[in-house]
Amino acid sequence: MTIMQMFNFPRRGLLTLAALCAFALPAVAQVQKLDRVVAVVDDDVVMASELQQRMNTITQQIAAQNVQAPPIDILRRQVLEQLIVERLQLQMGARAGVTISDEELDQAIARVQQNMNVSPAEFQQKLAADGISNNAFRQQIREEMIIRRVEQGSVSRRIQITDQDINNFLRSKEGEFWKSPQYQLGHILIPVGSSAPSEEVTAARAKAEAVYEKASKGDDFRALAISNSAGQNALQGGDLGWRKTVELPTLFADALEGLKVGDTTKPFRSDAGFHLLKIHEQRGATEQVVEQTKVRHILVKTSAIRDDDAAYKLLMDLRSKIEAGDLKFEDAARDNSEDIGTMLQGGDLGWSNPGQFVPEFTQAMDNTPVGEMSMPFRSQFGWHLLEIEGRRQQDMTDQYIRNQAANLLRNRRYEEELQSWRQEIRDQAYVEIKLPELQDPSAASDEKPAEQQ
To answer: Which ranges in 367-443 belong to alpha helices (H)?
Structure first.
């Protein structure tokens, strides 16, 4: 297995590594012969050698998946379009001042090494074995991270999840299913017909109550089911498997309400007889209590006059002064933070809930003890310094459900919006396809026609 196969970077990471492998091919003369501009993309170009390298990668992947490849001319146009959009994203990142510091890049590569369970030296050996230079590898991963950051920043601003969106989802059948807990259930049926004489009903009820008493005192429910149940799963210990409450008869779901793992329902009756249910295990349930964190933060953004190193140094200087007692965190936030919404409150974000912040922020917050500050770190919004003021357990069931539902809806819309956004930036860009055979004959194109070579 090559490093290309083991590396699992988002979006186009596998393509990137395979393309890098092509840098090491010995046919230098061939690469030189291929090199020519195949597309002008605003202020950048796509070279024939890049197109061929990506083509090699795609065809290898298609072959590995054992699927039928499209005709080569169609595939080449699709690959070129991919490269064009990537060029546009990188240009947008450059105009917005999006940069990836060496520290961030080192951290990303370290996570890859950790996931691969290899040492830095072994990782370098794998790169060399795949013909990938360290500098080329780092540059490609840096570009991957810039593209991801541009996408996240641009697309997230397009997605608005309203309270009504959340309400509509939670009221839908899908929403009911999504928020329903899942139980591993045991079932005992003491049979008695709906029209049975009263003495038979009384006897069945008495038997059901006796079984319930035994189960409540700790007797093995599965053994009780084998000995007493007339249910179709009796010989399997009454096992109903994993069931969401919305998949159960209403009578069963109502009986389980308010119970926890290990509890057994009191006998309840249906037309088939008296039932007992036991919750053996539970998973996927909505959390009743969540851990909240009280946090302050300072946000420093990069710009044309302040790069990543300068932002990091500023936060480290502030951190040192705060640790030495020469400065209070809230005062440092008022004077230095660029988060307009919190700077006047000394960076106070209040009590936060799980999933409220971007992953980088959440990770730093969770890894910082109460009463201490984080190290400076970067998110898509800039560089942050956190101070953790407290943690508490809070019953946030309803809000937790709504937050999770909002995240689910946002993630669903992200991919759709991502494709729309990519198409928009492509349509708005100046793109000149230099080779007629690479133009899409089926599309009405606004691109400048190829010039005579």
So the answer is: 397-428
What residue spans of 352-396 are helical by DSSP H?
359-366
**Cβ atoms 297, 349 nearer than 8 A:** yes
DSSP assignments along 14-63, one per residue:
HHHHHHHHHHT-S-HHHHHHH-SEEEEETTEEEEHHHHHHHHHHHHHHHH
Q: pLDDT class for 207, splitting at 50, 70, 90? A: very high
CA angle 12, 18, 22 (to 5 degrees): 135
Cβ atoms of 42 and 91 closer than 8 Å: yes
Strand order of the sheet with strand 37-41? 44-47, 37-41, 431-433
The residue length of the chain stands at 453
Cα first-last separation, the chain: 43
pLDDT in tens, 95-149: 988 889 888 899 888 888 888 888 888 888 888 887 778 888 898 899 989 999 9
In one-letter notation, the amino acid at residue 111 is R
* Whole-angstrom distance, CA of residue 299 vs CA of residue 377: 10
pTM equals 0.50
